[in-house]
Amino acid sequence: MPLEQRPDRLRDPGGFVLLSVLLVIGIVSALVIALTMTVRADRTNAAIERRLVQASALADAGLTRIIAALEGQDDPLLSNLSKPIYWRFAGQEVVVSLVPEAGKVDLNSGDSDLVVNVLGAVVRDGVVADRLVRRLAAMRRDGQGLETVRGLLDPDDRAGPLARDFEAVFTVWTNLRGVDPKFAPSVVLRNLPGLQAGEAELLVQASARGAYAELSPFITRFGPLLGATRPIYRARAEANVEGATARREVLLAHNPTRRLVWVVFWRDTVE
Questions:
Q1: Which domain of life does the UniProt lineage start with (predicted)?
Q2: How many whole angstroms from its chain centre is CA 180?
Q3: Radius of gyration of the CA atoms of the chain, in A
Q4: What is the tens place of the pLDDT at every residue in 127-158?
Q5: What domain range is 76 assigned to?
Q6: N or C: where does the chain have the smaller number of CB atoms within 10 Å of the terminal CB?
């Protein structure tokens, strides 16, 4: 039979149909897997958010409890807050603390020699310490005030151990030349300009014992360097809910006579 007269051979479409079905099944399966993973991720994120919200609420409750203690009279909580303590609320434990800012050296207004001495004691790297001293001196000459303690540090150091060490001894809120010796950290007292040999430890021990009679001669001698006081406090609270941690802090101005507290700021903290 001539080629042009041969009947067309019928082709079986079954293979193509099967391939199409498998393709559709594969696409649907991929979509189902992707959707399942998305749902699981959303659930995980929602669970994390829930725990963070709960932890933040607990931390805020801790700060509110501290404010209530300051506004009250002879609240036993205040006698323990010089160091972090556990406070129980809603079946959970919240770590709370209250530190007087007057025990710290004000970077904006503090005595220059005191600032330099304490800065050198806290910053072990001499090159970094010198750079920070020069930076602060330039800011003071230009009349620029620091808004935060961490603002003096290099950007890479504003979160981490050095920043925490800095905030333990420095402040920008008291506008005082010196410190209150009753609350000053030992590193501040040891670096007071003008101390004679052996006096540093006597001063530190008197402060630690709350022996105000022993502090009095130092206060008289050093004047505003040790006679400064101002009722400004930094309260901190930390709560953990199933691995989610919230850290909050608040700066408080306190009027003990009227038992009133003003909130300067209320914020998350960066460790």
A1: Bacteria
A2: 23
A3: 32
A4: 999 999 999 999 999 999 999 999 999 999 99
A5: 46-101+231-268
A6: N
